[in-house]
Amino acid sequence: MTVASTSPPLRRPRGDGALAALFVAPAMLGFLVFLLWPTLRGVYLSFTRFNLLTPAEWVGLDNYVRMVNDPIFWDSLTVTVEYVAINIGVQTISALAIAVLLQRLTQSAVLRGIVLTPYLMSNVVAGIVWLWILDTQLGIGNEIIAGLGFDRIPFLADETWAIPTIAVINVWRHVGYTALLLFAGLQAIPTDMYEAAKVDGASEWRMFWRITMPLLRPVLAVVLIMTVIGSFQVFDTVAVTTAGGPANATNVLQFYIYGSAFGRFQFGYASAMSVALLVVLSAITFLQYRLTRAGHTDLG
Q1: Which of 13, 33, 89, 227 has its CA 20 to 30 A from that of 5?
Q2: By CB neighbour count within 10 A (0-12 exposed, 13-18 middle, 19+ buried), where does 56 fall?
């Protein structure tokens, strides 16, 4: 025999829906004005010839055909991929090492603050500071190199050194933030797993590969997705330090798009390249999400 419950059903208080809509409204307004509308407008302009002075003229796929046949576009894409590979490789390994050391050796909040300090500086300021430090004749970096008896290195004026140097500058600024994201992921790993492994005689190296890396994988995957998207959008550091030179050696895709739009007033062509970049980033993000199983955790 079952006894029917006599308590009244729970009812959602009146006005909850309106209150929720009120809280969500600013975010939705920002999404519509600053993301959705510019995106739709950019897609439309990519099919037009537009220079701000005359009305947009519909040209169909002409901008995309021009992009496919544009050697500077492909050179910019190659330079961008080179930058992304160096930036992601160095930054991820460095951030992972810093995060593991912070977790295993110390819990000092002061050290975490020191690690995060470069991230508090804007990319423009960081670029100017490193431009001065690495100046071939007057920079303190080259003064130290010359003092050690080596030849001065034109870090930002040489085609071979320019992109790796810009990548390292951005690694210096962002590695602390990335390390703290990974550190937060490490904090979610139960400590009793490490204690049990120590009882079994496992070394730190073995615990890193058998415990830390598998359980950190979802956080690491999300961090990789974020850093890859951010790396493809590099612009301000290039604009401050090299302006795309020397000889287009640092002419990354974002800088080429900016030059086409605001330097040569070819907004339709710049929009077509922006749409292509959006498609490339969407495909890379989807592949990264699926291959790294970012939405799944190995914690039971």
Answers
A1: 13
A2: middle
Q: What is the chain's Cα-based Rg? A: 25
Separation CA 222–CA 249 (nearest Å): 30
Q: Kindly tell me if the per-residue pLDDT of 224 is higher than 80.
A: yes
The full length of the chain comes to: 300
Closest CA to 80 of 287, 278, 233, 200: 233
First CA to last CA distance, the chain: 39
113's torsion region: left (phi>0), alpha (psi -120 to 50) or beta? alpha
Do 238 and 122 contact (CB within 8 A), yes or no?
no
Neighbours of 128 (CB within 10 A): 15
Q: Has residue 199 got a pLDDT over 80?
A: yes
CB neighbour class for 57 (10 Å; exposed up to 12, middle 13-18, buried from 19): exposed
> How confident is the model over 130-185, as pLDDT tens digits?
999 999 888 999 999 999 999 999 999 999 999 999 999 999 999 999 999 999 88
